[in-house]
């Protein structure tokens, strides 16, 4: 059965800290891995990773895929309270469909 | 770019009524859209895959006669919750896959349905 596991499930940090969120996957015919940020509403797209070892970056967020380890990390540097959210990792399986991890709840305190 | 809208954002209805939720891709074409349901503190649960011009594909355990899906154009899919009951109360989220970028799904803002 295809699955996506995220860790930690929750994390509390102070503003300015750097955090690393993990996602591991077991899927047949791996094509890509996606990261989303979910605040009070629906998820917003962050990154799509297809190639191992190539870092994708957007401001203070970055992500990298390791196909050998079947995993990905999402880094957030100099965290701000606005980074507080659930971060979801998802992997497509079969055609089109996404398998989501349970998410990491990040709380950034002032 | 890559904006998906959903309407309404919030709806409260009486038990037994039907509710229609619209999902639109605003700046891209989406042959395929998806409908998810999310319960508090849980991850998204895929309900069905909506394909433009053909019947939707429902996930196991999802009643197709209760959750009617219509994908009338490359930018619009609708979910109708028929004869809603309190247990249908949930957060419904649609997503659309950009035809130009396979596998990348963009989510709408969600619809909070409360059935009294």
Sequence-ordered SSE layout with sheet pairings:
The complex is a heterodimer of chains A (110) and B (116).
Chain A: E1 3-7, E2 10-14, E3 19-26, E4 33-38, E5 44-49, E6 56-58, E7 61-66, E8 71-76, E9 85-93, E10 97-100, E11 104-109
Parallel strand pairs in A: 2-11
Antiparallel strand pairs in A: 1-3, 3-8, 4-5, 4-9, 6-7, 7-8, 9-10, 9-11
Chain B: E1 4-7, E2 10-13, E3 19-25, E4 32-38, E5 45-51, E6 57-58, E7 67-73, E8 76-81, E9 90-97, E10 105-107, E11 111-115
Parallel strand pairs in B: 2-11
Antiparallel strand pairs in B: 1-3, 3-8, 4-5, 4-9, 5-6, 7-8, 9-10, 9-11
Overview of the structural elements:
The complex is a heterodimer of chains A (110) and B (116). By secondary structure, chain A is mostly beta strands. Helices cover 0% and strands 58% of the residues of chain A. Chain A contains no helices and eleven strands. In chain A, strands 2, 4, 5, 9, 10 and 11 form a six-stranded mixed beta sheet that branches. A five-stranded antiparallel beta sheet of chain A has the order 1-3-8-7-6, with no helix packed on it. The radius of gyration of chain A is 13 Å and the shape is globular. Chain A starts with a strand and ends with a strand. The mean pLDDT of chain A is 92. Chain B has 116 residues and is mostly beta strands. Chain B has strands spanning 4-7, 10-13, 19-25, 32-38, 45-51, 57-58, 67-73, 76-81, 90-97, 105-107, 111-115. In chain B, strands 2, 4, 5, 6, 9, 10 and 11 form a seven-stranded mixed beta sheet that branches. The mean pLDDT of chain B is 91. At the A-B interface, strand 5 and strand 10 of A face strand 9 and strand 10 of B.
Q: Residue share in helices of chain A?
A: under 10%
The geometry of chain B reads as globular
Number of helices of chain B: 0
Structural class of chain A: mainly beta
Low-confidence stretches of chain A: none
Number of strand segments of chain B: 11
- Total DSSP helices of chain A: 0
Global shape of chain A = globular
Average pLDDT, all residues of chain B: 91
Oligomer: heterodimer
What kind of sheet is the major sheet of chain A? Answer: 6 strands, mixed
